[in-house]
Design a protein that fits this description.
- The protein has about 200 residues and is α/β, with parallel strands linked by helices.
- It has one domain (about 1-200): 3-Layer(aba) Sandwich (Rossmann fold).
- The chain is about 35% helix and about 25% strand.
- It has helices at about 1-5, 10-15, 20-30, 50-55, 65-75, 115-125, 150-155, 165-175, and strands at about 40, 60-65, 85, 100-105, 125-135, 180-185, 190-200.
- The chain has a seven-stranded mixed sheet with strand order 3-2-1-4-5-7-6.
- Mean pLDDT is about 85; it is low at about 1-15 and about 150-155.
């Protein structure tokens, strides 16, 4: 699996290559986490957002499809005692309906063949009046041109299935029935847009 193979070097991308974006991303996501929150994080990778979430929430379940990414996340988050780490499939989450106050899926929607199916599953496990927080890399600009860096990343194995700019990302959620969607941009070499919305009932 591609993500198992890159787990050992992924932090270089997070902390060096796309550092500016990720620092802004952590700041944006962090402001939505409250001390009483029970949080689920899907596609957590090596735990870039996990530390920011854990220091602000009550409990955090950190999941990823890659066992090696989860091992790296455990190492990077070893100082937190309110985190549980689990392997999980974003299309079939093993949690009851309405389980979490905040549900986060970072930088994964653009990689999925069936993003609406994943979104429905994230929505299912979110509590009524809870919040979905879904950051995803922007790989097209306003003129609909591909980002050269994301194009290169795709060629080495991180296969982008969806190509978004801020406008098309907002439209993606509206097409799924979400009305009050907010999108904030974390700018950098590969920009990232953070979409936030209330659970769809």
């Amino acid at each position: 699996m591609f993500w198992d193979n890159v787990a050992g070097v992924y932090d270089i991308f997070v902390k060096v290559i796309n550092r500016k974006t990720h620092n802004e991303l952590k700041s944006i996501v962090g402001k939505y986490i409250e001390s009483q929150d029970k949080v689920l994080e899907c596609a957590a990778g090596t735990g870039m957002l996990s530390t920011v979430i854990a220091e602000r929430c009550d409990t955090l379940v950190v999941t990823d499809f890659s066992s090696k990414m989860i091992k790296r996340a455990e190492k990077n988050c070893s100082s937190y005692d309110n985190i549980t780490f689990e392997l999980a499939d974003i299309f079939a989450l093993d949690y009851p309906d309405n389980s979490f106050d905040k549900v986060i899926a970072g930088n994964v929607i653009h990689l999925l063949d069936e993003p609406l199916k994943a979104l429905a599953e994230l929505n299912r496990v979110c509590r009524p009046s809870g919040m979905l927080i879904i950051p995803t890399y922007m790989n097209r600009d306003k003129q609909d041109k591909k980002n050269k860096l994301t194009d290169s990343v795709g060629k080495v194995g991180a296969d982008f299935k969806q190509y978004f700019n801020v406008v098309s990302y907002l439209e993606f959620f509206k097409s799924a029935g979400y009305i009050d969607v907010k999108v904030e941009l974390a700018d950098g070499k590969i920009p990232c847009a953070v979409a936030t919305m209330q659970k769809l009932i």
